[in-house]
Amino acid sequence: xxxxxxxxxxxxEVIDAVLSTVDDNGNPQSRIIDIMHIEDDRIYFLTGRGKHxxxxxxxxxxxxxxxxxxxxxxxxxxxxxxxxxQKYWIxxxxxxxPFMNNVYPGNARYILEPFCIEDYEMEFxxxxxxxxxxxxxxxxxxxxxxxxxxxxxxxxxxxxxQASCPQQIPVFVEDKFEIPQEHCLHCGLCYENCPNDAIVxxx
Length: 203
Known about the structure:
Elements: H1 4-14, E1 18-22, E2 28-32, E3 37-39, E4 42-48, H2 52-59, E5 62-69, E6 72-82, H3 86-96, H4 100-103, E7 112-126, E8 133-139, E9 149-151, H5 160-164, E10 171-173, E11 176-178, H6 189-193, E12 199-201
Pfam families: Fer4_10, PNPOx_N
GO molecular function: oxidoreductase activity
Protein name: Ferredoxin
């Protein structure tokens, strides 16, 4: 079990994260953009008006942030929007991230624009334990995306799913096997090997 506060703490400790956007041709674009402020469950960052990422977000506001520390990843998927009161947010973010003064000294900072992600899904994924562990949180109006696999009532309790699973996580409950979703790798080996087609992909 992990808390959202622990996730936010890791995001601020790492700071550097990969922000992914989509350009006007539908091509994915990724770059390192620091997560510079977290307040009231909202994620804040800055980027320059002349950069491609700025126009990409303005034209296609759906973004994904990915942060990794010690094989524990945090992925944020949501919509970014530009903030009003540019000067307030830039000054606040520079105060909390003083290294930015070396990059944009003096009034050069105001070429930047502040963005906020407030409606998003956050997934924590930990590869350091066995079985692996994942947990999702939703913020604002976002919904948690259903993923992974599920064993239906067609299960004949043969145990093939457990034997083929890299983490051996399917467990026998009453008269059939079940997949603890928080430990699932989403690899699909159980799905491909089930002799009775009793496993479905969660949509």
